[in-house]
């Protein structure tokens, strides 16, 4: 709607400029010599289509051209060529700015360019300056064609801008969907583990069951806060709340929930660019959530993270040769999109009885791109 409004406003401005040229030519034609009443009437009739155009009551293109050009012909025949011919030049140029049929336009240009030579039909020779005015008509048609082409290019640019805005909106929705998926999948997995552990020891060790339920409640509250923060981005994109990206804390959460996790973290993940660090955290988070869901009882999960100057490497293994894809398409597929966004690559699949997820995130290249 905004693009259409901008296009209409631009066309109205162009019409006013053309109408102003025609009006100035009409005034000069009436004051340059004696003006009998019929000449005033002819010039006034030639101004009628311009008045309709400015009033946004535009007649059909052919009718506009006839009303703007034909009344000028008797003025030229009787009074010789002069400034009044600029009225026909303005009409021709405007017609060309809205014409898409080049054959029709070529015929109209020839007809209007012949108007300065009409007095030669009743005299022995062509009037002085006829060739100059004919050239002016051709030049005006070329200007009209340039205006037409500019309008088309501007319309395409507006359409492209609208498409880019829609693509940005889709990308933002996908990012929010991934954030919600990652947050909910991680939190619910930990809660299920805590609740399951509490159920198993409820009678034998009520204190341990109560502690597990307390941890589950804490994780639920943190998940709700995180979801509120993500949903809040829909109202205020600048109100992003701080989120912990501590890998050791993430691993500790799963250990507290009863998952056997052996971790080895080399290097300083906090020194990574923020975008790379967020993706690194998401990869480990998703891998642990999947391992907790699919790993057999007693199976140990191995998390190895190595941060170097050139790249960050993540390798997560759990003893499970099969893996069901995540529902909704935001699991491994979503991770690949996030990893690819920072120039990395990610692979996942069975390897010697284990499910292995391997990821590499370049550091130097992404940092340069951020700069």
TrEMBL record:
Swiss-Prot/TrEMBL catalytic activity: ATP + protein L-histidine = ADP + protein N-phospho-L-histidine
UniProt keyword annotations, A-Z: ATP-binding, Kinase, Membrane, Nucleotide-binding, Phosphoprotein, Transferase, Transmembrane, Transmembrane helix, Two-component regulatory system
Enzyme Commission number, as recorded: 2.7.13.3
UniProt keyword annotation of Chaperone present: no
SUPFAM superfamilies found in the cross-reference section: ATPase domain of HSP90 chaperone/DNA topoisomerase II/histidine kinase (SSF55874)
Domain Signal transduction histidine kinase subgroup 3 dimerisation and phosphoacceptor: 172-238
Superkingdom of the source species: Bacteria
Transmembrane annotation, as ranges: 16-31, 38-55, 61-88, 100-118, 130-148
One Pfam family cited in the UniProt record for this chain: HisKA_3
PANTHER family the UniProt entry points to: NITRATE/NITRITE SENSOR PROTEIN NARX-RELATED, NITRATE_NITRITE SENSOR PROTEIN NARQ
Designated name of the protein: histidine kinase
Species assigned in the record: Amnibacterium soli
